[in-house]
Amino acid sequence: MNTAAVIKRILRQFRRDKRSAALMIAAPLLVLTLMWLVLDTDEAAVEIAAVGVPEHFVESIETEGMTVTVMEEQEAEEDLDRAEIDGMLQLEDGVPVLTLEGSDPNTSGAVRSKLQKQLSEQSSPIEWEYWNGSSELGLFDYVGPALIGFFVFFFVFIVGGVSFLRERTQGTLERLLASPIRRSEVVFGYLGGFGLFTIAQSVVIAAYSIYVLDVFMAGNFLYVLLVTILMALTALSLGTLVSAFAGNEFQMIQFIPLVIVPQVFFSGLFPTEGLAEWVQVVGNLMPLTYGAEALRDIMLRGASWESFQMEVFILIGFTALFTALNIIALKKHRPL
Amino acid sequence: METAVEMNSISHWFGKLQVIHDVDLNVEKGEIYGLLGPSGSGKTTLVKLMTGLLRPSEGVVKLNGEKMPALKQMKQFGFMAQSDALYSELTGRENLDFFASLYGMSRKDRRLRMEHVLDMVNLTVDASRPVHTYSGGMKRRLSLAASLIHEPDLIILDEPTVGIDPVLRQSIWNELNRLRDNGVTIIVTTHVMDEAEKCGRLALLRGGRMMAEDTPFRLKSKLEVSSMEEVFLHYGGGIRA
Ligand SMILES: Nc1ncnc2c1ncn2[C@@H]1O[C@H](COP(=O)(O)OP(=O)(O)OP(=O)(O)O)[C@@H](O)[C@H]1O
Ligand SMILES: [Mg+2]
Protein backbone atom coordinates (compact mmCIF):
# COMPACT_ATOMS: atom_id res chain seq x y z
CA MET A 1 0.00 0.00 0.00
CA ASN A 2 2.66 2.49 1.05
CA THR A 3 4.94 0.97 -1.56
CA ALA A 4 2.37 1.90 -4.20
CA ALA A 5 2.27 5.46 -2.87
CA VAL A 6 6.05 5.77 -3.19
CA ILE A 7 5.99 4.29 -6.69
CA LYS A 8 3.30 6.73 -7.79
CA ARG A 9 5.24 9.64 -6.36
CA ILE A 10 8.48 8.63 -8.09
CA LEU A 11 6.74 8.34 -11.45
CA ARG A 12 5.19 11.75 -10.89
CA GLN A 13 8.62 13.17 -10.14
CA PHE A 14 9.94 11.66 -13.35
CA ARG A 15 7.16 13.34 -15.25
CA ARG A 16 8.13 16.66 -13.72
CA ASP A 17 11.87 16.19 -13.81
CA LYS A 18 12.23 15.64 -17.52
CA ARG A 19 15.96 16.12 -17.36
CA SER A 20 16.59 13.02 -15.25
CA ALA A 21 14.22 11.01 -17.39
CA ALA A 22 16.02 12.22 -20.50
CA LEU A 23 19.41 11.51 -18.97
CA MET A 24 18.48 7.93 -18.32
CA ILE A 25 17.31 7.33 -21.88
CA ALA A 26 18.98 9.83 -24.16
CA ALA A 27 22.45 9.73 -22.64
CA PRO A 28 22.98 5.98 -23.16
CA LEU A 29 21.68 6.33 -26.72
CA LEU A 30 24.05 9.18 -27.41
CA VAL A 31 27.09 7.40 -26.00
CA LEU A 32 26.23 4.13 -27.76
CA THR A 33 25.94 6.01 -31.03
CA LEU A 34 29.32 7.65 -30.48
CA MET A 35 30.89 4.28 -29.70
CA TRP A 36 29.30 2.89 -32.81
CA LEU A 37 30.69 5.71 -34.91
CA VAL A 38 34.16 5.07 -33.54
CA LEU A 39 34.18 1.28 -33.51
CA ASP A 40 32.01 0.31 -36.41
CA THR A 41 34.02 2.29 -38.91
CA ASP A 42 35.06 0.94 -42.31
CA GLU A 43 37.68 3.56 -42.81
CA ALA A 44 40.72 1.68 -41.49
CA ALA A 45 43.29 1.23 -44.24
CA VAL A 46 43.77 -2.45 -44.99
CA GLU A 47 46.32 -4.46 -46.81
CA ILE A 48 45.80 -7.82 -48.47
CA ALA A 49 47.99 -10.19 -50.39
CA ALA A 50 46.95 -11.72 -53.72
CA VAL A 51 48.30 -15.22 -54.32
CA GLY A 52 47.92 -16.67 -57.76
CA VAL A 53 45.26 -14.21 -58.79
CA PRO A 54 45.17 -12.77 -62.36
CA GLU A 55 46.45 -9.23 -62.69
CA HIS A 56 43.19 -7.77 -64.03
CA PHE A 57 41.30 -9.18 -61.04
CA VAL A 58 43.75 -7.58 -58.63
CA GLU A 59 43.30 -4.24 -60.33
CA SER A 60 39.56 -4.56 -60.30
CA ILE A 61 39.38 -4.97 -56.55
CA GLU A 62 41.91 -2.37 -55.53
CA THR A 63 40.16 0.59 -53.99
CA GLU A 64 40.79 3.53 -51.75
CA GLY A 65 42.07 2.39 -48.36
CA MET A 66 42.84 -1.13 -49.54
CA THR A 67 46.15 -2.10 -51.06
CA VAL A 68 46.51 -5.43 -52.81
CA THR A 69 50.04 -6.85 -53.20
CA VAL A 70 50.89 -9.86 -55.33
CA MET A 71 52.86 -12.41 -53.28
CA GLU A 72 53.97 -16.02 -53.13
CA GLU A 73 51.80 -18.23 -50.95
CA GLN A 74 54.58 -18.95 -48.44
CA GLU A 75 55.46 -15.29 -48.07
CA ALA A 76 51.81 -14.36 -47.62
CA GLU A 77 51.31 -17.00 -44.94
CA GLU A 78 54.35 -15.76 -43.02
CA ASP A 79 52.95 -12.25 -43.19
CA LEU A 80 49.58 -13.50 -41.96
CA ASP A 81 51.31 -15.13 -39.02
CA ARG A 82 52.96 -11.86 -38.16
CA ALA A 83 49.72 -9.99 -38.84
CA GLU A 84 51.55 -7.76 -41.31
CA ILE A 85 48.76 -8.15 -43.80
CA ASP A 86 45.07 -8.30 -43.04
CA GLY A 87 44.09 -10.99 -45.51
CA MET A 88 45.14 -13.29 -48.35
CA LEU A 89 43.21 -13.60 -51.59
CA GLN A 90 43.34 -16.84 -53.56
CA LEU A 91 41.37 -18.53 -56.30
CA GLU A 92 39.93 -21.96 -55.72
CA ASP A 93 38.16 -23.49 -58.70
CA GLY A 94 37.73 -19.99 -60.07
CA VAL A 95 36.01 -18.71 -56.89
CA PRO A 96 37.89 -16.07 -54.93
CA VAL A 97 38.60 -17.08 -51.32
CA LEU A 98 39.74 -14.53 -48.83
CA THR A 99 41.51 -15.72 -45.70
CA LEU A 100 41.18 -13.02 -43.06
CA GLU A 101 43.94 -12.55 -40.54
CA GLY A 102 41.10 -12.27 -38.05
CA SER A 103 42.65 -11.18 -34.75
CA ASP A 104 41.18 -7.69 -34.88
CA PRO A 105 37.48 -7.88 -35.57
CA ASN A 106 37.47 -4.23 -36.54
CA THR A 107 39.96 -4.76 -39.37
CA SER A 108 38.29 -7.96 -40.49
CA GLY A 109 35.06 -6.08 -40.77
CA ALA A 110 36.75 -3.37 -42.82
CA VAL A 111 38.29 -5.88 -45.22
CA ARG A 112 35.01 -7.67 -45.65
CA SER A 113 32.96 -4.61 -46.34
CA LYS A 114 35.49 -3.15 -48.80
CA LEU A 115 35.90 -6.36 -50.73
CA GLN A 116 32.22 -7.07 -50.75
CA LYS A 117 31.55 -3.64 -52.17
CA GLN A 118 34.11 -4.08 -54.96
CA LEU A 119 32.95 -7.56 -55.81
CA SER A 120 29.29 -6.76 -55.81
CA GLU A 121 29.99 -4.38 -58.69
CA GLN A 122 31.18 -7.37 -60.66
CA SER A 123 28.59 -9.64 -59.04
CA SER A 124 31.30 -12.13 -58.28
CA PRO A 125 30.89 -14.59 -55.40
CA ILE A 126 33.48 -14.87 -52.66
CA GLU A 127 34.25 -17.23 -49.81
CA TRP A 128 35.64 -16.24 -46.46
CA GLU A 129 38.11 -18.05 -44.28
CA TYR A 130 39.90 -17.11 -41.12
CA TRP A 131 43.58 -17.44 -40.34
CA ASN A 132 43.15 -16.62 -36.65
CA GLY A 133 39.85 -17.02 -34.88
CA SER A 134 36.65 -17.41 -36.74
CA SER A 135 34.71 -14.43 -35.61
CA GLU A 136 32.62 -12.92 -38.29
CA LEU A 137 31.83 -9.98 -36.05
CA GLY A 138 32.87 -6.36 -36.06
CA LEU A 139 34.36 -4.96 -32.88
CA PHE A 140 31.20 -3.09 -32.13
CA ASP A 141 29.21 -6.28 -32.52
CA TYR A 142 31.49 -7.89 -29.99
CA VAL A 143 31.45 -5.14 -27.36
CA GLY A 144 27.89 -4.01 -28.07
CA PRO A 145 26.20 -6.34 -25.57
CA ALA A 146 28.58 -5.33 -22.80
CA LEU A 147 28.09 -1.67 -23.66
CA ILE A 148 24.31 -1.91 -23.55
CA GLY A 149 24.58 -3.52 -20.14
CA PHE A 150 27.14 -1.04 -18.95
CA PHE A 151 25.23 2.09 -19.91
CA VAL A 152 21.98 0.85 -18.43
CA PHE A 153 23.89 0.01 -15.26
CA PHE A 154 25.79 3.27 -15.12
CA PHE A 155 22.92 5.69 -15.63
CA VAL A 156 20.51 3.87 -13.35
CA PHE A 157 23.19 3.77 -10.66
CA ILE A 158 23.71 7.51 -10.88
CA VAL A 159 20.12 8.68 -11.15
CA GLY A 160 18.79 6.16 -8.64
CA GLY A 161 21.57 6.80 -6.15
CA VAL A 162 21.29 10.56 -6.38
CA SER A 163 17.49 10.54 -6.03
CA PHE A 164 17.70 8.45 -2.91
CA LEU A 165 20.44 10.67 -1.58
CA ARG A 166 18.35 13.76 -2.23
CA GLU A 167 15.51 12.18 -0.32
CA ARG A 168 17.88 12.25 2.63
CA THR A 169 19.45 15.67 2.11
CA GLN A 170 16.15 17.45 1.49
CA GLY A 171 14.75 15.91 4.67
CA THR A 172 11.90 14.02 3.06
CA LEU A 173 13.35 10.67 4.10
CA GLU A 174 13.05 11.70 7.74
CA ARG A 175 9.57 13.05 7.13
CA LEU A 176 8.68 9.79 5.41
CA LEU A 177 10.02 7.74 8.29
CA ALA A 178 8.00 9.84 10.74
CA SER A 179 4.92 8.28 9.12
CA PRO A 180 3.64 4.71 9.45
CA ILE A 181 5.71 3.51 6.49
CA ARG A 182 7.99 0.51 6.90
CA ARG A 183 11.63 0.79 5.95
CA SER A 184 11.16 -2.03 3.48
CA GLU A 185 8.25 -0.18 1.87
CA VAL A 186 10.49 2.80 1.19
CA VAL A 187 13.10 0.61 -0.48
CA PHE A 188 10.58 -1.45 -2.46
CA GLY A 189 8.86 1.74 -3.53
CA TYR A 190 12.12 2.92 -5.02
CA LEU A 191 12.73 -0.42 -6.74
CA GLY A 192 9.18 -0.36 -8.10
CA GLY A 193 9.10 3.23 -9.28
CA PHE A 194 12.49 3.14 -10.93
CA GLY A 195 11.89 -0.43 -12.04
CA LEU A 196 8.87 0.63 -14.09
CA PHE A 197 10.85 3.45 -15.58
CA THR A 198 13.82 1.23 -16.39
CA ILE A 199 11.60 -1.16 -18.32
CA ALA A 200 10.90 1.68 -20.72
CA GLN A 201 14.57 2.64 -20.67
CA SER A 202 15.73 -0.90 -21.42
CA VAL A 203 13.29 -1.31 -24.29
CA VAL A 204 14.47 1.90 -25.92
CA ILE A 205 18.18 1.24 -25.47
CA ALA A 206 18.08 -2.39 -26.56
CA ALA A 207 15.82 -1.71 -29.54
CA TYR A 208 17.95 1.23 -30.64
CA SER A 209 21.18 -0.78 -30.42
CA ILE A 210 19.80 -3.79 -32.20
CA TYR A 211 17.53 -2.29 -34.83
CA VAL A 212 19.11 1.10 -35.48
CA LEU A 213 22.81 0.58 -34.79
CA ASP A 214 22.45 -2.97 -36.07
CA VAL A 215 24.51 -4.67 -33.38
CA PHE A 216 24.85 -8.36 -34.13
CA MET A 217 21.86 -10.13 -32.60
CA ALA A 218 21.33 -13.86 -32.77
CA GLY A 219 19.00 -14.34 -29.81
CA ASN A 220 15.64 -13.47 -28.38
CA PHE A 221 14.88 -9.78 -27.86
CA LEU A 222 12.83 -10.53 -24.75
CA TYR A 223 15.80 -12.27 -23.15
CA VAL A 224 17.86 -9.16 -23.79
CA LEU A 225 15.17 -7.09 -22.09
CA LEU A 226 15.00 -9.44 -19.14
CA VAL A 227 18.73 -9.19 -18.54
CA THR A 228 18.94 -5.40 -19.01
CA ILE A 229 16.03 -4.84 -16.62
CA LEU A 230 17.66 -7.08 -14.03
CA MET A 231 20.90 -5.17 -14.47
CA ALA A 232 19.02 -1.93 -13.99
CA LEU A 233 17.48 -3.21 -10.76
CA THR A 234 20.86 -4.37 -9.52
CA ALA A 235 22.32 -0.97 -10.34
CA LEU A 236 19.43 0.76 -8.61
CA SER A 237 19.70 -1.27 -5.43
CA LEU A 238 23.48 -0.81 -5.42
CA GLY A 239 23.17 2.92 -6.11
CA THR A 240 20.67 3.50 -3.32
CA LEU A 241 22.76 1.41 -0.95
CA VAL A 242 25.94 3.29 -1.79
CA SER A 243 24.15 6.62 -1.42
CA ALA A 244 23.78 5.84 2.29
CA PHE A 245 27.53 6.37 2.53
CA ALA A 246 27.56 9.64 0.61
CA GLY A 247 27.00 12.97 2.31
CA ASN A 248 26.05 14.87 -0.81
CA GLU A 249 25.73 14.58 -4.59
CA PHE A 250 29.39 15.30 -5.11
CA GLN A 251 30.41 12.39 -2.90
CA MET A 252 28.00 10.20 -4.82
CA ILE A 253 29.90 11.04 -8.01
CA GLN A 254 33.11 10.03 -6.25
CA PHE A 255 31.78 6.50 -6.01
CA ILE A 256 31.86 6.13 -9.80
CA PRO A 257 35.59 5.38 -10.03
CA LEU A 258 35.28 3.12 -7.01
CA VAL A 259 32.19 1.15 -7.90
CA ILE A 260 31.55 1.52 -11.62
CA VAL A 261 34.92 1.80 -13.35
CA PRO A 262 36.39 -1.44 -11.96
CA GLN A 263 33.35 -3.30 -13.22
CA VAL A 264 34.09 -2.16 -16.76
CA PHE A 265 37.39 -4.03 -16.70
CA PHE A 266 35.61 -7.27 -15.98
CA SER A 267 32.62 -6.84 -18.20
CA GLY A 268 34.31 -8.52 -21.15
CA LEU A 269 35.39 -5.36 -22.90
CA PHE A 270 38.90 -6.52 -22.11
CA PRO A 271 40.00 -10.15 -22.05
CA THR A 272 40.42 -11.48 -18.50
CA GLU A 273 41.23 -15.15 -19.15
CA GLY A 274 44.97 -14.69 -18.73
CA LEU A 275 44.79 -12.76 -15.47
CA ALA A 276 45.84 -13.98 -12.06
CA GLU A 277 43.26 -16.01 -10.23
CA TRP A 278 42.62 -13.47 -7.50
CA VAL A 279 41.91 -10.83 -10.11
CA GLN A 280 39.30 -13.08 -11.67
CA VAL A 281 37.77 -13.65 -8.24
CA VAL A 282 37.35 -9.88 -7.93
CA GLY A 283 35.57 -9.93 -11.27
CA ASN A 284 33.22 -12.61 -10.01
CA LEU A 285 32.04 -10.27 -7.27
CA MET A 286 30.81 -7.70 -9.76
CA PRO A 287 27.27 -7.64 -11.12
CA LEU A 288 28.28 -6.22 -14.48
CA THR A 289 30.43 -9.31 -15.17
CA TYR A 290 27.33 -11.51 -15.12
CA GLY A 291 25.04 -9.12 -16.95
CA ALA A 292 27.52 -8.59 -19.78
CA GLU A 293 28.21 -12.31 -20.04
CA ALA A 294 24.51 -13.10 -20.28
CA LEU A 295 23.96 -10.42 -22.91
CA ARG A 296 26.89 -11.71 -24.99
CA ASP A 297 25.49 -15.21 -24.67
CA ILE A 298 22.11 -14.12 -25.92
CA MET A 299 23.12 -11.64 -28.58
CA LEU A 300 26.25 -13.26 -30.05
CA ARG A 301 25.55 -16.92 -29.52
CA GLY A 302 21.76 -16.93 -29.55
CA ALA A 303 21.77 -18.72 -26.23
CA SER A 304 18.74 -20.50 -24.85
CA TRP A 305 17.41 -19.87 -21.35
CA GLU A 306 19.34 -22.79 -19.88
CA SER A 307 22.72 -21.40 -20.81
CA PHE A 308 22.29 -17.97 -19.23
CA GLN A 309 19.88 -18.70 -16.39
CA MET A 310 22.75 -18.89 -13.92
CA GLU A 311 23.68 -15.28 -14.66
CA VAL A 312 20.04 -14.27 -14.26
CA PHE A 313 19.83 -15.89 -10.85
CA ILE A 314 23.07 -14.28 -9.78
CA LEU A 315 21.75 -10.84 -10.78
CA ILE A 316 18.55 -11.48 -8.83
CA GLY A 317 20.73 -12.53 -5.90
CA PHE A 318 22.73 -9.30 -6.08
CA THR A 319 19.52 -7.24 -6.14
CA ALA A 320 18.12 -9.13 -3.16
CA LEU A 321 21.36 -8.69 -1.21
CA PHE A 322 21.69 -4.97 -1.91
CA THR A 323 18.00 -4.42 -1.13
CA ALA A 324 18.26 -6.23 2.20
CA LEU A 325 21.38 -4.25 3.12
CA ASN A 326 19.60 -1.06 2.15
CA ILE A 327 16.65 -1.84 4.42
CA ILE A 328 19.08 -2.43 7.25
CA ALA A 329 21.05 0.74 6.44
CA LEU A 330 17.86 2.78 6.84
CA LYS A 331 17.91 1.87 10.53
CA LYS A 332 20.34 4.71 10.87
CA HIS A 333 17.43 7.07 10.20
CA ARG A 334 14.80 5.26 12.22
CA PRO A 335 15.61 2.43 14.59
CA LEU A 336 12.28 0.75 13.89
CA MET B 1 -5.78 13.53 32.82
CA GLU B 2 -4.39 11.17 30.25
CA THR B 3 -0.82 11.50 29.08
CA ALA B 4 -0.03 11.85 25.37
CA VAL B 5 3.75 11.83 25.62
CA GLU B 6 5.75 10.52 28.50
CA MET B 7 9.54 10.79 28.75
CA ASN B 8 11.22 9.11 31.70
CA SER B 9 14.86 9.87 32.57
CA ILE B 10 15.89 10.33 28.99
CA SER B 11 19.56 10.72 28.17
CA HIS B 12 20.94 10.69 24.68
CA TRP B 13 24.40 10.58 23.19
CA PHE B 14 25.59 11.24 19.66
CA GLY B 15 28.76 9.21 19.70
CA LYS B 16 30.61 10.43 22.76
CA LEU B 17 28.71 13.69 22.97
CA GLN B 18 25.85 13.71 25.46
CA VAL B 19 23.17 16.08 24.18
CA ILE B 20 20.22 15.17 26.45
CA HIS B 21 20.73 14.92 30.20
CA ASP B 22 18.18 13.02 32.22
CA VAL B 23 15.02 14.72 30.96
CA ASP B 24 11.60 13.90 32.42
CA LEU B 25 8.50 15.32 30.88
CA ASN B 26 4.82 14.55 30.51
CA VAL B 27 2.54 16.11 27.93
CA GLU B 28 -1.13 15.85 28.85
CA LYS B 29 -3.76 15.23 26.23
CA GLY B 30 -5.33 18.41 24.93
CA GLU B 31 -2.65 20.90 25.94
CA ILE B 32 -0.24 23.03 23.97
CA TYR B 33 3.21 22.19 25.28
CA GLY B 34 6.17 24.35 24.36
CA LEU B 35 9.86 23.46 24.26
CA LEU B 36 11.80 26.67 24.62
CA GLY B 37 15.55 26.84 24.50
CA PRO B 38 18.48 28.44 22.72
CA SER B 39 19.98 26.99 19.59
CA GLY B 40 21.65 23.66 20.23
CA SER B 41 19.84 23.07 23.52
CA GLY B 42 18.37 19.79 22.28
CA LYS B 43 14.83 20.70 21.17
CA THR B 44 15.04 18.89 17.84
CA THR B 45 16.70 15.90 19.47
CA LEU B 46 13.85 15.65 22.00
CA VAL B 47 11.32 15.87 19.20
CA LYS B 48 13.06 13.10 17.28
CA LEU B 49 13.06 10.96 20.38
CA MET B 50 9.30 11.49 20.74
CA THR B 51 8.60 10.57 17.13
CA GLY B 52 10.69 7.41 17.24
CA LEU B 53 13.23 8.72 14.73
CA LEU B 54 15.80 8.22 17.48
CA ARG B 55 15.93 5.58 20.18
CA PRO B 56 17.07 7.10 23.48
CA SER B 57 20.42 5.90 24.77
CA GLU B 58 18.83 5.76 28.21
CA GLY B 59 15.28 6.00 29.45
CA VAL B 60 11.86 5.31 28.00
CA VAL B 61 9.64 7.34 25.70
CA LYS B 62 5.95 6.47 25.57
CA LEU B 63 3.33 7.73 23.16
CA ASN B 64 -0.26 7.12 24.28
CA GLY B 65 1.16 4.66 26.80
CA GLU B 66 3.07 2.62 24.22
CA LYS B 67 6.85 2.45 24.26
CA MET B 68 8.49 4.14 21.27
CA PRO B 69 9.58 3.46 18.66
CA ALA B 70 6.43 1.61 17.64
CA LEU B 71 5.06 1.43 14.12
CA LYS B 72 1.49 1.52 15.38
CA GLN B 73 2.03 4.89 17.03
CA MET B 74 3.43 6.44 13.85
CA LYS B 75 -0.14 7.00 12.64
CA GLN B 76 -1.14 8.81 15.80
CA PHE B 77 0.86 11.98 15.35
CA GLY B 78 1.53 14.59 12.72
CA PHE B 79 5.10 15.81 12.40
CA MET B 80 6.56 18.96 10.99
CA ALA B 81 10.33 18.90 10.85
CA GLN B 82 12.53 21.92 11.42
CA SER B 83 13.61 21.97 7.78
CA ASP B 84 10.97 21.75 5.09
CA ALA B 85 10.70 18.21 3.86
CA LEU B 86 8.98 18.61 0.52
CA TYR B 87 9.43 17.29 -3.00
CA SER B 88 10.36 20.37 -4.95
CA GLU B 89 9.39 19.02 -8.39
CA LEU B 90 5.88 18.22 -7.23
CA THR B 91 3.07 20.70 -6.72
CA GLY B 92 1.75 21.57 -3.29
CA ARG B 93 -1.28 19.36 -3.81
CA GLU B 94 0.81 16.43 -5.04
CA ASN B 95 3.00 16.70 -1.96
CA LEU B 96 -0.02 16.62 0.31
CA ASP B 97 -1.56 13.79 -1.65
CA PHE B 98 1.60 11.72 -1.23
CA PHE B 99 1.85 12.26 2.52
CA ALA B 100 -1.87 11.63 2.91
CA SER B 101 -1.62 8.32 1.10
CA LEU B 102 0.96 7.13 3.63
CA TYR B 103 -1.75 7.21 6.28
CA GLY B 104 -4.07 4.96 4.35
CA MET B 105 -6.67 7.64 3.69
CA SER B 106 -9.23 6.99 1.00
CA ARG B 107 -9.12 9.08 -2.15
CA LYS B 108 -12.23 10.97 -1.15
CA ASP B 109 -10.94 11.69 2.36
CA ARG B 110 -7.65 12.79 0.95
CA ARG B 111 -9.28 15.28 -1.36
CA LEU B 112 -11.51 16.76 1.32
CA ARG B 113 -8.76 17.03 3.91
CA MET B 114 -6.33 18.42 1.37
CA GLU B 115 -8.58 21.36 0.52
CA HIS B 116 -9.29 21.90 4.21
CA VAL B 117 -5.65 22.10 5.29
CA LEU B 118 -4.68 24.14 2.23
CA ASP B 119 -7.33 26.64 3.19
CA MET B 120 -6.09 26.59 6.78
CA VAL B 121 -2.58 27.69 5.74
CA ASN B 122 -3.87 29.99 3.04
CA LEU B 123 -2.30 28.12 0.11
CA THR B 124 -5.36 27.15 -1.92
CA VAL B 125 -4.48 29.51 -4.75
CA ASP B 126 -0.89 28.30 -5.06
CA ALA B 127 -1.49 24.60 -4.54
CA SER B 128 -1.13 23.71 -8.21
CA ARG B 129 2.32 25.21 -8.55
CA PRO B 130 5.49 23.17 -8.15
CA VAL B 131 7.03 23.67 -4.73
CA HIS B 132 10.35 24.96 -6.09
CA THR B 133 8.50 28.13 -7.07
CA TYR B 134 7.36 28.70 -3.45
CA SER B 135 8.77 31.27 -1.07
CA GLY B 136 10.31 30.13 2.21
CA GLY B 137 7.18 30.94 4.17
CA MET B 138 4.95 29.15 1.68
CA LYS B 139 7.03 26.00 2.04
CA ARG B 140 6.79 26.29 5.81
CA ARG B 141 2.99 26.54 5.55
CA LEU B 142 2.82 23.56 3.22
CA SER B 143 4.91 21.54 5.68
CA LEU B 144 2.47 22.49 8.41
CA ALA B 145 -0.46 21.47 6.21
CA ALA B 146 1.22 18.12 5.55
CA SER B 147 1.54 17.45 9.27
CA LEU B 148 -2.19 18.05 9.76
CA ILE B 149 -3.39 16.11 6.73
CA HIS B 150 -4.51 12.95 8.50
CA GLU B 151 -6.27 14.71 11.40
CA PRO B 152 -3.90 13.43 14.09
CA ASP B 153 -4.70 13.73 17.79
CA LEU B 154 -1.15 14.80 18.47
CA ILE B 155 0.90 17.25 16.43
CA ILE B 156 4.60 17.75 16.95
CA LEU B 157 5.92 20.92 15.34
CA ASP B 158 9.61 21.83 15.24
CA GLU B 159 9.79 25.63 14.95
CA PRO B 160 6.66 25.89 12.82
CA THR B 161 6.49 29.64 12.37
CA VAL B 162 10.04 30.49 11.30
CA GLY B 163 9.85 32.69 8.23
CA ILE B 164 6.12 33.30 8.52
CA ASP B 165 4.84 36.87 8.73
CA PRO B 166 3.05 38.08 11.90
CA VAL B 167 -0.41 38.12 10.34
CA LEU B 168 -0.19 34.55 9.14
CA ARG B 169 1.53 33.49 12.33
CA GLN B 170 -1.42 34.86 14.26
CA SER B 171 -3.84 32.92 12.10
CA ILE B 172 -1.82 29.73 12.50
CA TRP B 173 -1.89 30.15 16.26
CA ASN B 174 -5.63 30.72 16.12
CA GLU B 175 -5.88 27.45 14.25
CA LEU B 176 -3.67 25.66 16.78
CA ASN B 177 -5.84 26.98 19.61
CA ARG B 178 -8.96 25.83 17.79
CA LEU B 179 -7.41 22.35 17.36
CA ARG B 180 -6.55 22.29 21.05
CA ASP B 181 -10.13 23.17 21.90
CA ASN B 182 -11.14 20.11 19.89
CA GLY B 183 -8.93 17.97 22.09
CA VAL B 184 -5.80 17.83 19.91
CA THR B 185 -2.47 17.76 21.76
CA ILE B 186 0.18 20.07 20.38
CA ILE B 187 3.91 20.10 21.05
CA VAL B 188 5.87 22.98 19.58
CA THR B 189 9.49 24.00 19.82
CA THR B 190 10.34 27.65 19.56
CA HIS B 191 12.77 30.33 20.53
CA VAL B 192 10.32 33.14 19.91
CA MET B 193 9.14 34.65 23.21
CA ASP B 194 5.65 35.76 22.24
CA GLU B 195 5.02 32.28 20.93
CA ALA B 196 6.22 30.73 24.15
CA GLU B 197 3.62 32.85 25.96
CA LYS B 198 0.87 31.17 23.97
CA CYS B 199 1.71 27.69 25.21
CA GLY B 200 -0.26 26.11 28.02
CA ARG B 201 2.89 24.78 29.61
CA LEU B 202 6.47 25.38 28.79
CA ALA B 203 9.70 23.45 29.27
CA LEU B 204 12.87 25.51 29.34
CA LEU B 205 15.89 23.69 27.96
CA ARG B 206 19.52 24.53 28.14
CA GLY B 207 22.46 22.35 27.17
CA GLY B 208 20.22 19.32 26.98
CA ARG B 209 18.91 19.82 30.52
CA MET B 210 15.42 20.74 31.55
CA MET B 211 15.83 23.94 33.61
CA ALA B 212 12.18 24.58 34.43
CA GLU B 213 8.70 23.48 33.44
CA ASP B 214 5.48 25.34 34.18
CA THR B 215 2.82 27.63 32.76
CA PRO B 216 4.22 30.86 31.31
CA PHE B 217 2.41 32.85 34.00
CA ARG B 218 3.86 30.88 36.90
CA LEU B 219 7.37 30.86 35.35
CA LYS B 220 7.21 34.65 35.31
CA SER B 221 5.72 35.10 38.73
CA LYS B 222 8.14 32.68 40.36
CA LEU B 223 11.00 34.90 39.24
CA GLU B 224 8.97 38.06 39.80
CA VAL B 225 9.59 39.27 36.27
CA SER B 226 7.13 40.62 33.75
CA SER B 227 8.31 39.13 30.45
CA MET B 228 9.18 35.71 29.05
CA GLU B 229 12.38 37.24 27.78
CA GLU B 230 13.62 37.71 31.33
CA VAL B 231 12.68 34.13 32.22
CA PHE B 232 14.59 32.90 29.18
CA LEU B 233 17.65 34.94 30.11
CA HIS B 234 17.44 33.88 33.74
CA TYR B 235 17.65 30.20 32.84
CA GLY B 236 20.75 30.80 30.79
CA GLY B 237 19.25 31.46 27.43
CA GLY B 238 21.51 34.43 26.93
CA ILE B 239 24.63 32.35 27.14
CA ARG B 240 25.04 29.67 24.50
CA ALA B 241 24.52 26.28 26.02
N1 LIG C 1 23.21 13.79 14.22
C1 LIG C 1 23.93 14.43 15.15
N2 LIG C 1 25.19 14.04 15.40
C2 LIG C 1 25.93 14.67 16.35
N3 LIG C 1 25.50 15.68 17.08
C3 LIG C 1 24.25 16.12 16.89
C4 LIG C 1 23.40 15.51 15.90
N4 LIG C 1 22.22 16.16 15.93
C5 LIG C 1 22.33 17.11 16.87
N5 LIG C 1 23.54 17.09 17.45
C6 LIG C 1 23.99 17.97 18.55
O1 LIG C 1 23.04 17.90 19.58
C7 LIG C 1 22.86 19.16 20.18
C8 LIG C 1 21.38 19.50 20.18
O2 LIG C 1 20.96 19.68 18.85
P1 LIG C 1 19.45 19.99 18.48
O3 LIG C 1 19.35 19.92 17.00
O4 LIG C 1 18.58 19.10 19.26
O5 LIG C 1 19.30 21.49 18.97
P2 LIG C 1 18.06 22.47 18.85
O6 LIG C 1 17.67 22.87 20.22
O7 LIG C 1 17.01 21.89 17.99
O8 LIG C 1 18.71 23.72 18.13
P3 LIG C 1 18.08 24.75 17.06
O9 LIG C 1 17.23 25.72 17.81
O10 LIG C 1 19.28 25.42 16.47
O11 LIG C 1 17.31 23.94 16.08
C9 LIG C 1 23.72 20.13 19.41
O12 LIG C 1 24.90 20.34 20.16
C10 LIG C 1 24.05 19.42 18.13
O13 LIG C 1 25.34 19.76 17.70
MG1 LIG D 1 16.20 22.32 16.23
Automatic annotation (TrEMBL), chain B:
Recite the UniProt keywords alphabetically. ATP-binding, Nucleotide-binding
SUPFAM superfamilies given for it? P-loop containing nucleoside triphosphate hydrolases
On whether Nucleotide-binding is a keyword of this UniProt record, the answer is: yes
What Pfam families does this protein's entry cite? ABC_tran
Recorded GO molecular functions are: ATP binding
User: Which segments constitute the ABC transporter domain?
Assistant: 5-232
InterPro entries xref list: AAA+_ATPase, ABC_transporter-like_ATP-bd, ABC_transporter-like_CS, P-loop_NTPase
Q: Where is the signal peptide?
A: none
- Asked if the record carries the keyword ATP-binding, the reply is yes
Q: What's the name of the protein?
A: ABC transporter ATP-binding protein
